[in-house]
Amino acid sequence: AQTVTQSQPEMSVQEAETVTLSCTYDTSESDYYLFWYKQPPSRQMILVIRQEAYKQQNATENRFSVNFQKAAKSFSLKISDSQLGDAAMYFCAPSYGKLTFGQGTILTVHP
Amino acid sequence: NAGVTQTPKFQVLKTGQSMTLQCAQDMNHEYMSWYRQDPGMGLRLIHYSVGAGITDQGEVPNGYNVSRSTTEDFPLRLLSAAPSQTSVYFCASSYSGLGVYGYTFGSGTRLTVV
Predict the structure, then answer these.
(1) Rounded mean pLDDT of B3-30?
(2) What gap in Å lies between CA A106 and CA B67, rounded to an integer?
(3) A28 — contact with chain B (CB < 8 Å)?
(4) Is A68 an interface residue toward B (CB < 8 Å)?
(5) Which of A65, A88, B42, B100 minimizes the number of CB atoms within 10 Å of its CB?
(6) Tens digits of per-residue pLDDT, A2-49?
(7) CB A8: neighbour CB atoms within 10 A?
(8) What is d(CA A34, CA B37) in angstroms, rounded to the nearest whole number?
(9) What tens digit of pLDDT does each residue of B101-110 get?
(10) Are residues B89 and B35 in contact, defined by beta-carbon separation less than 8 angstroms?
(11) What percent of chain B has pLDDT above 90?
(12) Does residue A67 carry a pLDDT above 80?
């Protein structure tokens, strides 16, 4: 079974500060994609950022960036200049032909 | 608006009843899938389809059936509802299983089995 581990059940950050959410995964596949999804209380799943495993360059989307370490099978999400609207559950989700989810990290943003 | 449409949004069933959760997408995505989300857990894959006429089991398929007669629709059938099937169900679609351009999710169905 291909596993995804998010070791931080909960994280908190002050508004305008930076926070990093960690994720490790286990796969023998060579071609895959990695995603971070955000789920606010509305329960809608929102794509935050995606990374192609064959690309060494880390993906960035505005205030969101990843640190992708393929050999270590690590895929962390950094949120800079945190905003109150960033408060949500965040899921790490690799795709090897099927999307597989970690258990999620609840992010709280304090004003 | 283009996207994934799930119906109903809420449903209460009695143990032993059957029902179908509907999922439709208008993006011409070949890949469609169903997940369930339980409290404190991530989403778990129930069934998926890589194209019309092709379906396969995911991680937790027991008690559920699917079919894919068209590209647009991917209904999930609960054969005989059990309290253990109380959950939030999500449908997701993508151009391919790898999700090259990401996956689009429906808004979810909250199902309670009493």
Answers:
(1) 97
(2) 35
(3) no
(4) no
(5) B100
(6) 789 999 999 999 999 999 999 999 988 888 999 999 999 999 999 999
(7) 15
(8) 20
(9) 889 999 999 9
(10) yes
(11) 89
(12) yes
Say whether A43 and B88 touch across the interface (CB within 8 A).
yes
C-alpha A58/C-alpha B39 separation (Å) is: 32
* Sign of the torsion angle spanned by Cα atoms B39, B41, B43, B47: negative
Tally the residues of chain B: 114
Determine whether the interchain pair B88/A102 forms a contact, defined as Cβ–Cβ distance below 8 Å. Answer: no
Closest CA to B28 of B102, B96, B75: B96
A111 CB near a chain B CB, below 8 Å? no
- Say whether residue B44 is in contact with chain A using an 8 A CB cutoff: yes
Helix (H) or strand (E) holding A95: strand A88-95
- pLDDT category, B80, cuts 50, 70, 90? very high
